[in-house]
Amino acid sequence: MSQNDNLFKKIMRGEIPSAKVYEDDxxxxxxxxxxxxxxxxxxxxxxxxxxxxxxxxxxAAVAGxxxxxxxxxxxxxxxxxxxxxxxxxxxxxxxxxxxxxHLHLLAGRDLQWPPG
Length: 116
Ligand code: AMP
Description:
Elements: H1 7-12, E1 20-23, E2 27-31, E3 39-45, H2 60-77, E4 84-87, E5 103-107
Antiparallel strand pairs: 1-2, 2-3, 3-5, 4-5
Bound molecules: adenosine monophosphate.
């Protein structure tokens, strides 16, 4: 686990403003500042995990919580039936720019496959 500071930790501490969508003891969810779809929410663990690469069996509950939160928000925000996509970019080649694990929740338009 990393203790390094980064943008998303500052957002969770309220040092950088964010449009919060959901929060509980394990996760924080907020609107992406540069939305790639009409709905674009980032769901992050409060635990200091840099990326999927850091996950061990001990992190199974919090990793699952990211998906459970995505499914809950999809129902609450009304796009569970129309469809949505969950993306976790990991590492430079996948386009990860913030070194704190985050799940992108995208909805509200036809999403192309394969992604760019
Ligand atoms: P990734 O490229 O997978 O690391 O995703 C990082 C995401 O963070 C991008 O979609 C950015 O638009 C988003 N982002 C960067 N800064 C902020 C911010 N201050 N508030 C909300 N989202 C941000």
